[in-house]
């Protein structure tokens, strides 16, 4: 299975997501958009964000060197903002979809795209 297709077609291809990566819960980047580099520390923080949503809510989330204010966090979702732009992170059974959107895309538009792909991956046990 090529994970890059999910990033390129299902996320970036919608025009609602500007940058994206799929990170395995056990570590490692499965696929990412060109130039979207998450440090090892950022990857670990993304995965652990779902285990401690209160801390994530208090401290925000850092992606590719950019810190996002956390609007909402729980065991499956993290939503963040940085000015007019934002991020949507969704945990599946084996991975985390990490996405960023930029204006004029609205949070709800990006969230719908990311959640739809996450639901599909969960349905096929990923």
Question: What is the topological layout?
Answer:
Layout: H1 3-11, E1 19-24, E2 29-32, H2 40-49, H3 53-59, E3 61-63, E4 66-73, E5 77-82, E6 85-91, E7 95-101, H4 107-123
Antiparallel strand pairs: 1-2, 1-7, 3-4, 4-5, 5-6, 6-7
Subcellular location: Cytoplasm, Cytoskeleton
Pfam family, one: Profilin
Keywords: Actin-binding, Cytoplasm, Cytoskeleton
Task: List the keywords.
7-stranded antiparallel sheet, single chain, 4 helices, Beta-Lactamase, 126 residues
**Which superfamily, in CATH terms, is the homologous superfamily?**
Dynein light chain 2a, cytoplasmic
Name the shape in a single word. Answer: globular
The second-level CATH architecture is: 2-Layer Sandwich
User: Biggest sheet, open or closed, and with what strands and sense?
Assistant: 7 strands, antiparallel
Give a count of the beta strands, DSSP E runs of length 2 or more.
7
Q: What percent of the residues sit in helical stretches (DSSP H or I)? A: 25-40%
> Strands across the major sheet, in which order?
2-1-7-6-5-4-3
How much of the sequence lies in strands comes to 25-35%
Rg (C-alpha, Å) = 13 Å
Give the integer mean of the pLDDT values: 96
Tell me the CATH topology: Beta-Lactamase
Helix tally equals: 4
Structural class: alpha+beta
What is the CATH first-level class name? Alpha Beta
Total count of domains: 1
Q: Topology as H/E string? A: HEEHHEEEEEH
Distance between the termini: 11 Å
The parts where pLDDT drops under 50 for at least 5 residues are none
